[in-house]
Structure formats: structure tokens, C-alpha cells
Amino acid sequence: MTLIRSIPGAVSISGARSISGARAWVVTAGRSCAVLRLDARDRLLSAHWGRELGLEQAAALVGVSVPVTAGAAAPGFGAVGHGGAWPFEEDVEGPLELAVGAAFQFGHAQLAVRFADGTRELELEFVSALIENSDTEDTAELVLSFADRHYPLAVESRYRVRSGSPVIERRLVLRHTGSAGEEIISILRADSASWTLPPLADYRLSQVRGRWAAETRLHRSSPPFGETLLTSRRGITGHHANPWVMVDDGTAGATHGQVFGCALAWSGSWQITVERTSADRTVVAAGFGPDGAVWPLAPGEVLTTPVSAGIWTDGGFDAASQAWHAYVLDHVLPHAEELRPVVYNSWEATGFDVSLEGQLALARQAAGIGVELFVMDDGWFGSRTSDRTGLGDWWPNPDRFPDGLAPLVKGVRELGMDFGLWVEPEMVNPDSDLYREHPDWVLHQPFRQRSEHRNQLVLNLARPDVAEWVHEWLDRLVAENDIGFLKWDMNRPFTEVGWPEAGNGGGDLVWRRYVENLYALLDKLRAGHPSLRIESCSGGGGRLDAGMLARVDQVWTSDNTDALDRLAIQEGFAQVYPARVMSAWVTDSPNPHTGRRMPLEFRFHVAMSGVLGIGGDLAEWSEEELVTAREMVAAYKRIRPVVQHGVRYTHGNASGDLSGAEYVAADRSEAVVFVYRRERRFAQMERPVVLRGVDAGGRYRDVGSGIVHHGAVLLSRGLPMALGGGDPVSTMVHLVREG
Ligand code: GLA
Asked: Which of 79, 251, 336, 546 is deepest in the core (most CB within 10 A)?
């Protein structure tokens, strides 16, 4: 059971204020906890984040601080300096749990505001602590409330935990408490959380980097002293970075070591600031909005930041990833219990060249190999015969589909498959009826050019009329055509970010409103069509984050479908996000992106470690290839529950010669092991793969060979490998427990 408890001896947590003594709380999540306390100046400090502490231990930890007087040090925390005795050593650094950049806080300010008279200094007084326990949802939330001493601003720092989950969810809630007519408060920065790490022997940062067709590639490095900014200024989560980090002391491995992680649930521009102070403490702040955007808060208005989730484990990177996967599956994703179907997508086969006959021919082939969901990609609407025209005109192309989509949908359904469609609702080609009618609907600034990318502009979804229009046509399209699945694409970053009709602040506000309206739109569409499922795509994996995952069912991982490149992309993806949301297609050889030839089985084995799809031109596949495909799809359906819902263990790393993934059912009744050999060097021998998730006491039958393995042997000597010749090469072993 996960609980928030107040430390015995601490003051009453309801409505307490300015009472001397330890004012402290412990937030427990699974085997981890955070201990927070207030100092005499009502600054919220982090006393601990890491291994779970009992109440007594946490109290002792907080008790070690001497009674704090204004400006005095809190030994053990390095909280404040030396009463001014040592010039330049009075900085408040490291343990601030709510960093507002007030006096002597020279580090990154999680919260920064400007009042109407120009004052920027925040002087927060503690108001109350409230613990809200929800029995129905098994959640508990600690709400620490502060108010500025003079100005009408209330600030809440919220911590939410759930029974059985090691994740702490944090966010800020800002409220203008003045009455109508009072001046607005400008919010200059509102990060959801500052996560203070304990002193470690060293710090190492894990992140993913990327670009289009090369997303989510894992990178570990020692952060420099100073501030490292991971960010997206593109209006979307972005291909170049993803809003999470993990930090360890440089020695953690797949199976051992403390790992601290934090992620942000936001699908627009964002920032994660990793601050390593010169005294060698590390704080990670995560928040929404690009640098420089100023958000006005009017009297009565409330600004709630997105959730920043944090985890701690001492079980190494696998345990950290497993914790993230469980969090996404149990608490973020809608309908996570469902198994995702095998998809066929026509994009790589046909490009924009879609027709009723062509799609039906592909659908017949797809059904023949066991596909369950047929998706027609781009090129079906308006005058969209290339990427130059038609985006925004969301009716079936009258030349290509003179009778609408009905004949195709009917044909696909008669083949026993569900029907899905590609849409890109947030975009417009200037060469479209929509743009000719509503040139003011796009993001733009007066007297500035409108930079096109892929010949398109971004619709300003922050405008209520635009958001309403998008919902209206999507709602109709889905209802009229019995559409079960949308691939929701977003193919360019924001530029000339402006909203002139909203006045002076519109260009700043749009960064936030756009995403809020996107979320509202997805929520409303899903509510109106409960069986509709959605894939998030943004030129591949450009919009992958926990905010999006709360309202979509899967994510298109990358436009790069080269199986060898995918190993690296999928490795980074899997650090935080589960296989259940990782769309992966088998496409043609040579691969259209890289020109590389790879065996069909290898391509399947890579795609089968996520949500399997087929994206090749099936009309060109030989009879032999189609037979193999049918067998592989059937095999995937057997292993799918273990891959999509199981616990993942990583073997090797994707850039090494040999790598793999092991998925184990929660009850350890089954395991699926993928092994990939990129390159065989010096005739190296294949070593057995030492499994990590099976039950030592169990006996497991290899479904392929019939050989029975003892769990204890698999966990010590390993699973023997015989990959054979040729590179790249792979194998997939499905183990079922017999006893
Ligand atoms: C983006 C997507 C692709 C495809 C095209 C269609 O690039 O990532 O999968 O849907 O758009 O234009």
C-alpha cells in the first residue's frame, strides 16, 4: 500500500503555519520515498529522495537539522550559507524542493513570476498541508500550499502516489487570488517539479537523442558542472530529445545500482534542466513551455502544470524501465489491458498513389497473412496526390473514391479486418480550399513570412473555432465511415508562433493552449467514439510522451523501418515506454530508407518485439515470403500477450554485436526471448543468453524445439543459442512453463 504520512512530532499538517519545529512529510511510493521539510523561512527543502524510510527513520533524518534560524545553515543539507560571513558562499543550493529563485537562490528557478509593478522576487509563506486519500482510486495526494506574503498568488506543490506504484507524480498549481480588476501576474517559468538527488560519488545522465528517422537513441554521459538543458522548442515533444532523464552514479548496470528517473507528461515544447552545482549536487527540473514564453494569470485564474513523474530504484536500469512501463500501463494508457492488433499500413507500399482497387488488393494480401487492422495512409482526401496540395480538405478524393470510403471500408471489413485511416488534423497546405477560406487560421505573426515545411503550415489549434472545426469533421468522418483506428499525424514543427487575434500575449499563450486543446480534442473524440483507437505519429516518433499516451493507444516509433537502425531506436524507446505502445512494421528489402538488405525473419523479429505491423508492398512479396510472413504473424499472435504486457529485460546493447530482449509474463508462466546478431566477428562463438525473469523453480518448454529447460539453469547457465551463419541474423524463442 502506498501512503503519504506525516512525520510524528511534526506539526499538524492541516492548516499549520509558522510553527516552529520540524514541519516535514514523507511521501512513500513503493520501495521509494521522498522526505520534505520546511525551514524557518518556509522554504520547502528536500531532505531525502531514494530508498524507503520508515517514519522513525525519516523523522530522525529531519531531526538532525539544528533549529533553523533565518539565514542560518541546516547542517547536512547545505541549505543556506554562513550568515554572510563568507562572501559569495551564501548560495542556497541543492536541496530546494520548490526553487523560486528568491534571495540567494542562484540556481535554476522552477517558478519565476513578474507582478504588475515589476517585482519578481517571490516571498512564499507556508499556508497548509493537506493529505487527500482516495479510497476508490487507491491514490493519495499531499498538497503543500503557499501564498506570497504580499501579492495575490497562491502556489501549491502537489505529490500524488498510488498504491503499489513506485512513481511519485508532482505538479504545481498556481492561483491568482486577487479580485476582478486587479492586475495580472505574469508567469515566466512554471516547472512541474525540482527533483533533488542525494549526494552520489558521481553523476551520470541517461537521455535519448535523435532526429527524424533516427529517434530515441540512448546516450549516457556525465553532466558538466552548470546547467544542461534538454528541450523542445518545436511545439511538439520532438524527435531530437524526449522529456525524461535518468541519473545514476556512473556505476549502475542493467541489473544493479541506484537509478533516479524523471519524466514529463507534456506534448508541446518543454524543458528539462539538469543542474550540477559546483558543490557537486544535482537537481533536475522538468516543465512545460519553451524558454521566454510568458503566461498571464488573471484574477481567479488557475494554472496547473503537467505531471512530472519520478522514480527511484536500486535494481539498475532494467528495474527503472520496468517501473516506467508498469506506470504507463497501469496509470497512463487508456485500455492498456487490450492487446494491440497486427496492422497493415499502405504508406511504404503506395506513397500518395492510393486507389480503391490498389488498397483492396493490398487488403486481400494482408488478410491472407493474418493482419487484423488495415490502415490506408496519406493520399485519400481532397486533391492530395502529393505533399503539395489538399491538406485540410478532409473529404474523400472524388476521382479516387467516387463513392466515398464506404466500398473500401466494406471490403476491408468483409476480409475480417478492422479499418483505419491516416489523418493530419493540425495542418494545412496553402494550396487547399481550407487555407483559401481561412488564411488566418494558421500560426503566424503580422508582417512576417509564413515558413512552409513539407509545403504545409500549422493550424492554430489554440483558437477555439479551429479546435471545434477539427472535432466536427473528425467526428463525422469516424461516425460515417465506421472507422476503428486513426493514425494521427503531425508533420512539422511550429515556426512564426503567433496568434495575433489574441492580442499581445497570444504568441506566448499559444504554446500551452495548443496542447491543452489537442488533449481536449482527443478526449472528446474518444468519448464520442468509445471503440476508436488512435496512433500518435509526428513524422515518426516526434510526439511520444506520457501526456500523449494518456489519450492514444500506440505510437509510430519512427519513419525509419530499417530493422538494424530500429534496434537502436527501439532500445531508447523501451527505456521508458512499454512494447505495448511501440508500433513496428516489417517493410521491404532493400529498405526504402537505407537501401540495406535484411532477411525477412530478422525484420520480423525486430518488429515482433513491439506492436507488430506490416508496411511492405505485399504485391511484390514472393509466395515463399508470404508463407513465412503468415507463420510469423501467427507466432506473434501467440507471443503477443507476453510482449505487450510482460516484463522486459534488456540483453546487451543495440550497438553491440549481439543484443536482445526478454519478455516474461507477470506470472512467469511464459517467456519470449529475441536475440539479434548484427555482425559476427572473428568467428566468435554464440554464448548462451542468461535469462533474468523466469522462475528458478519452473521447467520451461521451448515451443519451437520442444526442448525442456529448467528455470534455474536458464538463470545461471543460460539459454543455448545457435544463430547460424549470415548477418544480420536473429532468433525468437518462446518458452512456456510446464511445471
Ligand atoms: C509522415 C508519417 C509517415 C506517413 C507520411 C504520410 O511522414 O510519419 O508514416 O504517414 O507522413 O504523408
From this structure: 546
